[in-house]
Amino acid sequence: MKTITATDLARNLRTVLDRLAVDREEIVVERNHQPVARLVPGPGRQTALEAMADLYRTLPEDAAHGWMEDGRAGPGGRLLDDEARDPWAT
């Protein structure tokens, strides 16, 4: 856990917040050599893929299969192709 003085925090707030966001480590703020506050990183960001990465573990197998089919359904209930198509191809 990193420590910083209240004076250094006041002088370098932007830098300290950047370090907090990047390093994801708590920072203790001290005044007169006594801890007075603790800065903790906020919740991290996730991509949709990361957020749904473990979803398959929570679904029963038959539900997972149906979920995949529903996700691939296109307009009119037609299933989408297996391969991605180039949108700029003529």
Integer-rounded radius of gyration: 24 Å
Shape: elongated
Order of strands in the sheet with the most strands?
A: 1-2-3
What's the helical proportion of residues?
40-55%
Mean pLDDT: 82
Structural category is alpha+beta
- What is the CATH class name of the largest domain? Alpha Beta
**What is the CA–CA distance across the termini?**
57 Å
CATH fold group of the largest domain: YefM-like fold
- Element order, helices and strands? EHHEEHHH
Whole-number total of structural domains: 2
Which residue ranges are poorly predicted, with pLDDT under 50 across at least 5 consecutive positions? none
CATH architecture of the largest domain: 3-Layer(aba) Sandwich
Model description:
It is built from five helices and three strands, in the order βααββααα. The N and C termini lie far apart (57 Å). It has 90 residues and is α+β, with helices and mostly antiparallel strands. 41% of the residues lie in helices and 17% in strands. Strands 1-2-3 form a three-stranded mixed sheet. The chain has two domains: 2-39, YefM-like fold, CATH 3.40.1620; 48-75, no CATH class. The radius of gyration is 24 Å and the shape is elongated. The mean pLDDT is 82.
